[in-house]
Every structure is written in C-alpha cells, then in structure tokens.
Write a structure and sequence with these properties.
Elements: H1 8-14, E1 21-24, H2 27-38, E2 41-43, E3 49-54, E4 57-63, E5 87-90, H3 95-102, E6 108-115, E7 120-126, E8 132-138
Parallel strand pairs: 1-4, 5-8
Antiparallel strand pairs: 2-3, 3-4, 6-7, 7-8
C-alpha cells in the first residue's frame, strides 16, 4: 500500500489485527521524536494526523481535537503520563544508541540500556506525551 497517497477510507478499510493509535498534543512534535529517535517514517502528516511505520508495522497518531466526539477524550489526563501501564515495544532498535540521542529529542530515559534475564538488552524512554517506548535487541 502506498501510504503517501492512500485515502482515509481505503486506509481504514485495510486495517487488520491489532491496531495502535496514539493521541498526542502535537502531531508534528511526536513525528519528529519518532523519526529522529527510532527511525520511523511518517506518511501524510498534518496538524491532526499521521500514518507511522516502524519496519513493516503501521500505526496512527491523532491530535486530541480529532477525538471531539470520542468517549476516550474525557479520560485523557491534562498532563503526562498518558500511557501509564502500556509499553510500546520496539524490538529492532538498539537501546544504547537510542539512549544516547533520547534527551536531545525530548525523551526522558526511565531506564538506561540494561541486560535482562529474558534475553533482551532494553531501555525505557518516555516521550513528552507520556508514552513508554521500550527499545530492545536480543543479547
């Protein structure tokens, strides 16, 4: 699928399985964070929306205002963290390299790159919207 040109209707109809949609205060800032820190790619970014890819995986960003009639909007906290209790895991991103760049791109390192007993070296990074991004590589 060509994410540069796909219509909203065709994109929506193509979605399958489990989807991830992050509500953010500023789509442009979140796109810059995700592209700069994790090498993700944004398609059709606007002030309200962006299609994001990480490898072959796809997810969406929406600015809060696009959820004006959505029941979830009333549950959003006024200040981060928003995503408390969820980890967004990126299994193909080097945690040491990512930690070295995180703060310059607005990230907060919750846990430096650490070897874990479950066979991964991973780091926890919080973005300004309060989502926990866990980057890891196999040991």
């Amino acid at each position: 699928m060509d994410y540069n040109d796909v219509s909203a209707e065709d994109f929506g109809a193509s979605l399958r399985g489990i989807g991830l949609n992050l509500l953010v205060r500023d789509v442009g800032r979140q796109v810059a964070f995700l592209e700069g820190l994790f090498g993700m790619k944004a398609f059709q970014p606007t002030e309200d929306f962006a299609i994001m890819t990480y490898g072959e995986d796809v997810f969406q960003l929406h600015v809060d205002g696009t959820y004006h009639s959505n029941p979830l909007l009333g549950l959003l906290p006024e200040s981060p963290p928003r995503g408390a209790g969820i980890e967004i895991r990126l299994y193909d991103t080097d945690p040491d390299e990512t930690c070295a760049r995180a703060e310059a791109l607005g990230g907060t390192i919750l846990q430096e790159a650490t070897d874990k007993p479950h066979g991964l070296r991973e780091a926890y990074i919080l973005c300004e919207n309060g989502y926990a991004w866990v980057v890891s590589r196999a040991l």
